[in-house]
Amino acid sequence: MSPAYAQHGRAALHLAHAASLAPSPHNNQPWFFVEEGHDHGLEIHADRGRRLVLTDPGGRESVIACGAALFNARIAVRNLGFQPAVDLLPESGNPAYLARVAFAAHAPATFHEALMEGAMAHRHTHRGPFGAEHVAEELLDELRDHARAEGALLHIVEDPDRLDLLADLGFWLTFRGGLTECDVSGLWWDGRTLLP
Questions:
Q1: How many CB atoms lie within 10 A of CB 59?
Q2: 45 and 31 in contact (C-beta within 8 Å)?
Q3: Contact at 8 Å (CB) between 30 and 62?
Q4: Dihedral-angle region of residue 47 (phi above 0 means left; psi in -120 to 50 means alpha; beta otherwise)
């Protein structure tokens, strides 16, 4: 661990600070963090008392925000010179205990990881309209690569009918209880196919 975080509790404080900079709906910060003691790691819990019950009745957006906090904590671990060890949903029967982040093997942060940590404090909310300009294909390819690195897929949807369908599905997921699982390769809803 770097000398700046050599005192007990300082590394966990660094992780909690980074995690707290994550985006959340209306900046409600629907999480709380628990130090595992002696800088062994950090627990990330969903704080149900901070969930916005009218706009997020199922808690989906709160969990997404906690995922962003987890990402920030992972980047902070990397910038302390370690690989993050992440345990998702570590306690069966306690769905609010979302993740544990600990320190694994020593590994210096990459240039891009250092840039990401530096950018955390500059994140801000944009409530204005998006511009109509086309997003460069190179940027979309880069975003797809980043999604794959996180074990996800990024599909670009430009067809207006599919965009309307996704908006309907988003409303249904938010206000009608949502889906628990789905296979995105054949995702369909209301008799219409979402993805090619």
A1: 18
A2: yes
A3: yes
A4: beta
Residue 140 pLDDT more than 80? yes
β-bridge mates for residue 72, sequence order:
none
b/e for 111-126, b at 16 or more Cβ within 10 A?
A: eebeebbeebeeeeee
Q: How many CB atoms lie within 10 A of CB 28?
A: 16
**Is pLDDT of 85 > 90?**
yes
Going from the C-alpha of 111 to that of each of 72, 78, 140, the distances in angstroms are: 16, 11, 21
CA–CA distance, 9 with 102 (Å, rounded to integer): 13
What percentage of the chain exceeds 70 in pLDDT?
83
**With contact defined as beta carbons under 8 Å apart, do 77 and 131 qualify?**
no
The model's confidence at residue 20, banded by pLDDT at 50, 70 and 90, is very high
**Distance in angstroms (rounded) separating the CA atoms of residues 138 and 140:** 5
- Residue 32 parent element (H or E): strand 31-35
Which residue from 38, 106, 45, 37 is spatially nearest to 73, judged by alpha carbons? Answer: 45
What does the angle CA 117 – CA 153 – CA 141 come to, to the nearest 5 degrees?
Answer: 70
pTM: 0.79
